[in-house]
Amino acid sequence: MSEYIARHGKPVAFYSDKHSVFRNNVASARVDGMTHFGRALDSLNIEVSCANSAPAKGRVERVHETLQDRLVKEMRLVGISTVEATKAFFPAFIEQHNAQFAKAPFHDKNLHRPLAAR
Fold first, then answer.
1. Contact 22, 50 (CB under 8 A)
2. Separation CA 2–CA 14 (nearest Å)
3. Vertex 65 angle, CA 63 and 68, to 5°
4. Which pick of 51, 60, 110, 116 has the fewest CB atoms within 10 Å?
5. How far apart are CA 45 and CA 66, in angstroms?
6. Cα(69)–Cα(81) distance, rounded to whole angstroms?
7. What share of the chain is helix, strand, coil (3-state, %, to 5)?
8. What is the DSSP string of 82-101?
9. Cβ of 35: how many Cβ atoms within 10 Å?
């Protein structure tokens, strides 16, 4: 997340599934129900929005499954087995993946803010 913010700025909101990193899925002693990651985003004034409908969950999980499956297979095909080789391979993979699967946003306004902005 720190690399993303350094590159693009702070997003207005962070859209995710209901994984326990993003949302406290069990009752706990914490009154606010936030996870550590959620508190970090809150301190940066970034809203966390979890997918609630089946189509929204599908959008989030489909990308995760695609990357989890496709990335591993692509890495095997080119013989990658180290973290260093992965880091070198990843930018070209993402560019190719986005060229094939990315869709233009409804609105092209950039809603990222500088890190210093609250």
1. yes
2. 13
3. 105
4. 116
5. 30
6. 16
7. 50, 10, 40
8. SHHHHHHHHHHHHHHHHHHH
9. 19
Q: Is 70 helix (H, G, I), strand (E, B) or coil?
A: helix
Chain centroid to CA 8: how far?
13
pTM for the predicted model, two decimal places? 0.58
Residue at 99: amino acid letter: A
The residue written with tokens 């997003």 in the block is 11
Q: How far apart are CA 113 and CA 117, in angstroms?
A: 6
The answer on pLDDT for 80 being more than 90 is yes
DSSP E strand stretches across 2-112: 13-16, 47-50
Strand ranges (E), 6-52: 13-16, 47-50
Q: Encode burial over 6-28: b for 16+ CB neighbours within 10 A, e otherwise.
A: eeeebbeebebbeeeebbeeeee
The pair of three-digit structure tokens given for residue 72, joined into one six-digit string = 């591993």
Q: In this prediction, what percent of the chain has a pLDDT beyond 90?
A: 14
